[in-house]
Amino acid sequence: MLGNGVVGILSESVNKWERRVPLTPSHCARLLHSGREKTGVARIVVQPSTKRIHHDSLYEDVGCDISDDLSTCGLILGIKQPKLDMILPDRAYAFFSHTHKAQKENMPLLEKILAKRVSLYDYELIVGDHGKRLLAFGKYAGRAGIIDFLCGLGQRYLSLGYSTPLLSLGASYMYPSLAAAKAAVISVGEEIASQGLPSGICPLVFVFTGSGNVSHGAQEIFKLLPHTFVEPSRLPELFGKVRNLNSPARTSKRVFQVYGCVVTSRDMVEHKDPSKIFDKADYYAHPEHYNPVFHEKVAPYASAIVNCIYWEKRFPRLLSTQQLQDLMRKGCPLVGISDITCDVGGSIEFVNETTSIDLPFFRYDPLTDSYHHDMEGNGILCSAVDILPTEFAKEASQHFGDILSQFVGSLASTADVSKLPAHLKRACIAHGGALTSLYEYIPRMRNSDTEDISDNLANGHSNKKYSVLVSLSGHLFDQFLINEALDIIEAAGGSFHLVKCQVGQSTSAMSYSELEVGADDREVLDQIIDSLTSVANPSENHVIISQEMNKISLKVGKIQETVDTTEFDTKRRKSVLILGAGRVCQPAVELLASTGSSSSRQWYKTCLETDFEEQNDVHVIVASLYLKDAEEIIQGIPNATAVELDVTDHGSLCEYISQVEVVVSLLPQSCHVVIANVCIELKKHLVTASYVDNSMSMLDEKAKNAGITILGEMGLDPGIDHMMAMKMINEAHVRKGKIKSFTSYCGGLPSPAAANNPLAYKFSWNPAGAIRAGQNPATYKSQDETVHVNGDDLYYSAVRFRIPELPAFALECLPNRNSLIYGELYGIGYEASTIFRGTLRYEGFSEIMATLARIGLFNAEAHPLLEHESRPTFRTFLYKLLKIDTEAMDEAVIGEKEITERIVKLGHCKDGGAAVKAAKTIMFLGLLERTEIPVSCHSAFAVTCHRMEEKLAYSRTEQDMVLLHHEVEVDFPDSQHTEHHTATLLEFGKAKNGKMTSAMALTVGVPVAIGALLLLVNKITTPGVLRPIQPEVYVPALDILQAYGIKLMEKTE
């Protein structure tokens, strides 16, 4: 049965809230559709579940079998352990078993595993080459925990008499996605930034403990609020400064941000010997040499504590009951504690119970030492939910399955454990009814009666004449040194009892065990100690024997080589070079430079399974031909440098590119090939927002050979349009749907308030490109018929267009170039009967532009009237185009009415209404003015561009708008109906510090920066020339876009 390629997925039964899955339907689809030869998976059987985050039908749609019976499965996957009576014999199981720690409560499970001859793989033990666990949910616990906590704080502050923006926040599980939850937090942050917080609760200080994934996840959400991070040593200064602002004389003063403080073990304790500084390795081995100081140096200034550290009894508590009581009597501002680690009676002594997702809080009153389950009254709000990641079951499962799906094939198709890859072989605890060699220590440690021995030691009793308490700190379980240590004790004739045990959460973290080692002969005990010393480090003496015979501390392994002593504030700076300092540049720089900083920039910087915080600062170099332009871009932006660079200077270009990991080119498309060749030569990634033309495509093989990625079309259109389209299409294909119709519409427009001219249009760039686009031919497919539109007829092909969800927008649509190539690009060319891409404008635009074109205002040929040094006026030139004889007409009376009549008479319009609109536009553009035409204008096209650039420009306070809308019709087999899917992006320009950043700049600059970020964290691993149509690009990119505040609205009918 083992290795038969059939995979089972358990229905989770431990907790009603457990909705996570080890593999999502999309993971199953990839495993099944790629074929057993490639994936090792032949079938997938899913136990039915009505509470799972993904409905059974979605699994069925991708080819999974739905059945309670998993007897045909050689490999069975779950999140939590199955019910013991449901474990099938001679199968392989993978789930979080927690058995390798030899904890008493998990031993019945291990006994059942052995009795049923099960091969047990524990996700917790799958460790990558980088020394970290590959399968974990820590960041999701942090994310969900902090959102729930913020929600509870809003309610708690209200009960204390303060209304805050936090009150509008819901619990994590109430949001349909992590992105939606983050958007809600961002909205709360925007309200804090604009309305402020009541002075009576400020400074609002959040203290985060630890520097692991849980803490990083919590901080990630916190950073979506306007914030400043403060070093622990600066808390008294901050407290005094803000409290002075909030003095009685200034009771109306409000604070417009929150404060964060990250503390690690160095901030929680200090050495008992004042002459010695904190040393993490020493603290882990000798915690008895340290005194707690968190309650004195940090807690007095904390409003909220987010606890993310694992704790065990040998360490000082973070906060004891007595310490809290003393703090509250002194007026400490502490309002709440979220113990995300859910360590009952642990580092937070008074957290004496776990809470649930539906009842996440209790109130502890330290002055009466009483517990309450309401928000009213005195005390501290406490939370300790033990299953937080399932609140974001969809994203957590996606993240988990992305990794697990890489291993499933090996586990499902291999019966011989010895033939597995090393990282999977090490994760196998049991096989064929026996423990594997690496875990032989488990029964030996089980033989110790932990509770009895602890009591005996506390009372000074032992069953041996001589005994000693040995602390083994180091890499005991990941390097399996615990086996060797136990062998030494038993071989010498000694005995041991396990007193305490903590297994490190990764190979970069130490494990700790306390053993009571005994012998009836003092010499035998000395021999054991000497042998353990030699295992610890043959070259150095790591045994420290105290004056008391029963107190020995032993460090196992070369700790100074494996302990991370740089946990506090270590920075690894990566660099990005941005070429070009135009309008798009600043949003890109702001996003990139804010990564890892402690500024108040609100944006989402997590790339799914990548711990982005570990990358810390990104340094951005902005290069421009004119240094002043680059300096203006980076003004006020940290981690950014401006340089002067001429990209035609090959030596200088190579010098700057060699200094960075990723290059972003915002220069004209004609420059990209030169830049790309240098990137290939120096093996640096490149991102652009421009179309991938033939010259770029030809570099694909070179880029692959260099091992770099050239990511093009990473803007708005092209860019976000690709990503939205591929998400919709691939989701339909996973469900075995067939794309019947694909239509896409995009437009950069003035906001309704700024559409204050006859064209209802404005330009943020030179209008020449937009005018030329109106003369391009177009091709599209409609109902299996190919339609060609000549460039001269493009404006006449415009049709009325409405979006039901946005009824206020009266729009029209023009076909946009060749839509058919997108059928091939998106893989729907043969299945879709309609493929159409269009450009959006406000209704009436095309009619006016068509009239202006027929008048001749877009003619690019040199005009005889403009060839002379003596310049005609705009009025004279217009008369020439309209063939107005000034001798026959009184020039003084020529106005809008006369121009309208002339347009109709010349046959440029079919009806008077269109002629009126065209005449109003001509008047608005100033083409009837008596001002001389500049000498730079040699054609009617140049004259029109000059006037449009001047008259149709945005003012400093006007907003532009970007609207992108996709519609996809999907047919499904054996279905009588067609599903209609829509996705819409609506973004407006944003004002900041009196300066407007256009929506167009945002929706081009932000995606191109996201592309650079994904390359920096190795989220994009495919080399060559790419568009953002692969899931490894568009899945994280769309998530980050939403979290950054660029909203995508999706709907299915």
From TrEMBL:
Domain (Alanine dehydrogenase/pyridine nucleotide transhydrogenase N-terminal) ranges: 8-144
SUPFAM superfamilies linked: Formate/glycerate dehydrogenase catalytic domain-like (SSF52283), Glyceraldehyde-3-phosphate dehydrogenase-like, C-terminal domain (SSF55347), NAD(P)-binding Rossmann-fold domains (SSF51735)
Record-linked Pfam families: AlaDh_PNT_N, Saccharop_dh_N, Sacchrp_dh_C, Sacchrp_dh_NADP
Origin superkingdom: Eukaryota
InterPro entries cross-referenced by the UniProt entry: AASS, AlaDH/PNT_N, AlaDH/PNT_NAD(H)-bd, LOR/SDH_bifunc_enz_cons_dom, LOR/SDH_bifunc_enz_cons_dom_sf, NAD(P)-bd_dom_sf, Sacchrp_dh-like_C, Sacchrp_dh_NADP-bd
Pathway the protein acts in: Amino-acid degradation; L-lysine degradation via saccharopine pathway; glutaryl-CoA from L-lysine: step 2/6; Amino-acid degradation; L-lysine degradation via saccharopine pathway; glutaryl-CoA from L-lysine: step 1/6
Keywords, in A-Z order: Membrane, Multifunctional enzyme, NAD, NADP, Oxidoreductase, Transmembrane, Transmembrane helix
Domain spans labelled Alanine dehydrogenase/pyridine nucleotide transhydrogenase NAD(H)-binding: 184-384
Molecular function per GO: saccharopine dehydrogenase activity
Membrane-spanning segments: 999-1017
Gene Ontology annotations for the cellular component aspect, listed alphabetically: cytoplasm
GO BP annotation list: L-lysine catabolic process to acetyl-CoA via saccharopine; lysine biosynthetic process via aminoadipic acid
Family listed: In the C-terminal section; belongs to the saccharopine dehydrogenase family.
PANTHER family, per the entry: ALPHA-AMINOADIPIC SEMIALDEHYDE SYNTHASE, MITOCHONDRIAL, SACCHAROPINE DEHYDROGENASE
Identification of the protein by name: Alpha-aminoadipic semialdehyde synthase-like isoform X1
Native species: Durio zibethinus (Durian)
